Amino acid sequence: MSQATPYPITDRNVPTRSKERAAYDRESVHAILDEGYLCHLGFVRDGAPVVLPTLYARIGERLYVHGSTGSRPLRGAGQDAGLPVCLTVTLVDGLVLARSAFHHSINYRSVVVHGTAYQVTDPKERALALDAVVDHIVPGRADDSRRADARELAATAVVRLDLTEVSAKIRTGGPNDDEADLALPYWSGVVPVTEHRGTPAPAADLDPTIALPGYLSTER
Amino acid sequence: MSQATPYPITDRNVPTRSKERAAYDRESVHAILDEGYLCHLGFVRDGAPVVLPTLYARIGERLYVHGSTGSRPLRGAGQDAGLPVCLTVTLVDGLVLARSAFHHSINYRSVVVHGTAYQVTDPKERALALDAVVDHIVPGRADDSRRADARELAATAVVRLDLTEVSAKIRTGGPNDDEADLALPYWSGVVPVTEHRGTPAPAADLDPTIALPGYLSTER
């Protein structure tokens, strides 16, 4: 699918609020999905919603989630009909402090994917997906680890979710105070928020002759 | 409710995986809910799951979420029967790199709340909840802002969710590699992850004689 073709707008990916913050272009959606690595996966169990945090990765127009074959949502995705899910990724960029409590907000970038998750059974696709999840967290890591053996693969469910019904929502910039509030004596502005990766701490049982690999050497 | 009484264990708050990571004590649950400020709220619309990011605050054994009266989940919570929801908060503490791809993980603390959300109509409870949401993001801020006026209050829905069916899940520590993998030549350990709040940036139209308030003066 061309990068130039946006995701289609549907009934359920149009926000009811702040429509001007919605984006459907693939570039924006992919950038958010690639910067995040933790999603919140929602599904329905016994008629009630369940939301669980999990890792994911993107390959092209498909997201992958993995987990134990015993986990409830992944078992559900193993049925022929698949499992209806909503997968949401949110990155926080700042706390927006307006003069009015009402206009307090956060700067954020989020992606919401609606669709049906299916278990992946093709061994090649499973292997690519598992590498992608590891490399998504730390690029370069999959090649520098022992890949799953047959026993581990048998215990691992890989689930795919196609990017077909997708939207991003993005808020940037300063507070949007009402004109009448601008002269109020309250500080207003934005507190930037970033995720920080600190100095890697070796495992207690790591052979001390094994150096920190290059892909971990720079903080970000 | 005494802090000493844990949340009851039910069918749906027992994890199917990694049961040893589950916690039901109020102290652990409250600490995670108070450190986070962004939740992912799941609900069911037309039979399908929806997961949206939103701000929240805790007062005692109750969580509050607010939003536009026009938003779909908040309208649903305004019905007599309320809206079945799952509210999940996840804090990431580290990336866990094991020798084996299979044992890669993250250190995290999460809370999952199952229950029914109801709109709050009592004006006093609404006011307390709105202050709590602002103060949850930046403690001390509610008193240093213009509180909502009648028009803004009329446009704001406040929703409550009681903490009755709740569980925390916590992973800490280093990689759990299999004994047979310990001699493999791969670096293993943990990359710490923290959320960082940077230097507050004043709004472009802020009166330059208004100093940064004390509650924002220290980075964290």
Summarize the structure.
Two copies of one chain form a homodimer. Chain A is of the alpha+beta class.
Element string of chain A (H = helix, E = strand):
EHEEEHEEHHEEEE
CATH topology assignment of chain A: Pnp Oxidase, Chain A
Helix content of chain A: 10-25%
CA distance, first residue to last residue of chain A: 32 Å
CATH class group of chain A = Mainly Beta
Which sequence of strands runs across the widest sheet of chain A? Answer: 2-3-4-7-6-5
Q: What oligomeric state is this?
A: homodimer
* Backbone shape of chain A: globular
Radius of gyration of chain A: 21 Å
Strand content of chain A: 35-45%
Q: Give a quick account of the main beta sheet of chain A: strands, pairing sense, barrel closure.
A: 6 strands, antiparallel, barrel
Structural class of chain A: alpha+beta
Reported CATH architecture of chain A: Roll
Q: Overall mean pLDDT score of chain A?
A: 93
Describe this structure in words.
- The structure is a homodimer of 220-residue chains.
- Chain A has 220 residues and is an alpha+beta fold.
- Chain A has a single domain, classed as Pnp Oxidase, Chain A, CATH 2.30.110.
- Chain A is built from four helices and ten strands.
- In chain A, strands 2-3-4-7-6-5 form a six-stranded antiparallel barrel.
- The longest helix of chain A has 15 residues.
- Chain A starts with 21 loop residues before the first strand and ends in an 18-residue tail after the last strand.
- Chains A and B meet through β2, β3, β5, β6 and α3 of A and β2, β3, β6, β7 and α3 of B.
